[in-house]
Specification:
Keywords: DNA damage, DNA repair, Hydrolase, Magnesium, Manganese, Metal-binding. By secondary structure, the protein is an alpha+beta fold. The chain has helices spanning 91-105, 122-125, 135-147, 153-157, 232-252; strands at 7-11, 30-34, 44-48, 54-61, 67-74, 77-85, 109-115, 150-152, 166-168, 173-175, 178-183, 190-195, 206-210, 256-258, 261-263. It starts with 6 loop residues before the first strand and ends in a 7-residue tail after the last strand.
Length: 270
């Protein structure tokens, strides 16, 4: 909540499907959760902040806890938010199955985020430059992403940089396992992408900012400080400004005919 995100994609919630805890957070009153029927394993979620005008929601929840799909409107624009958590083996098979479900569900601007449990580019996404994940799994996972024309937001802005989202103490290895993707046709909306510091989780958060002219934060209403009107100097200044304004209008505005009637500017009491 300290990141003040409007939409949060969460993985590894580890809530039991039989007895899920109630998630109560006044900053994120709307949440969609996929809890595994097999017990306290996996688990994904999509949360919306109270300042996000999300409407007409539809969701698709995975009984295995591997994905959560939520579709709805923010302002007049439709979005589909997807939170996924892949297993640590056969990731390509899992993501193909998830995307098969997604193709019939998605609508509007697609945002996919999650823990893929593999580095997409071992050369840049691991501290050693190598990975134990089979090359075939990596290639087929990238092919699945390409089938929806999904682009890695952080890598698109930092094509040759190194940064990581997970540290394995037993292997003394840093890897980038967590991603947010946008379709190629929506990449013009991407304003920024960052990897945040690791705090209470063993993974670093990934944050993106999208431009959206259709929904703006609620603005505070401006109110006049009425005590200013009791100040003689301020009151005198306001009277002078009004008199000068109407004097200028007198010189600038000439009588004109409109619908056969002569209209003159009304100056009121000056």
């Amino acid at each position: 909540t300290s990141l003040h995100a409007d939409v949060v994609l969460v993985q590894e919630t580890h809530f039991s499907h039989a007895r899920p805890p109630s998630f109560k957070n006044h900053k994120y009153p709307i949440g969609y959760f996929s809890n595994a029927t097999a017990g306290r394993v996996c688990g994904t979620a999509v949360l919306f902040s109270r300042s996000t005008p999300f409407s007409n929601p539809t969701s698709l929840l995975d009984p295995a806890g591997r994905y959560t799909f939520v579709k709805g409107q923010i302002g007049a624009q439709w979005y589909t938010f997807v939170s996924i958590y892949l297993p640590n083996r056969q990731q390509h098979s899992a993501i193909r199955s998830i995307f098969h479900q997604l193709q019939d569900f998605q609508g509007g601007i697609l945002v996919v985020g999650g823990d893929l449990n593999l580095p997409l580019d071992a050369r840049l996404d691991t501290s050693r430059g190598v990975t134990s994940t089979p090359h075939t799994v990596l290639r087929r996972t990238r092919t699945a992403l390409h089938s929806l024309r999904l682009m890695d937001c952080w890598r698109s802005l930092f094509p040759s940089a190194r940064d990581y989202t997970y540290y394995s103490a037993p292997h003394q290895l840093y890897t980038r396992l967590d991603y947010i993707f946008l379709p190629f046709g929506s990449m013009h909306l991407l304003e920024s992408a960052t990897i945040g510091p690791m705090t209470w989780s063993d993974h670093c958060p990934v944050l993106i900012t999208l431009s959206s002219p259709l929904a703006r934060p609620r603005e505070k209403l401006w109110r006049l400080n009425e005590s200013l009107l009791t100040d003689p100097q301020i009151k005198e200044g306001l009277q002078d400004a009004l008199q000068n304004y109407f004097k200028k209008m007198t010189h600038l505005t000439a009588p004109r005919r409109l619908f056969g009637k002569l209209i003159r500017p009304s100056l009121g009491d000056t």
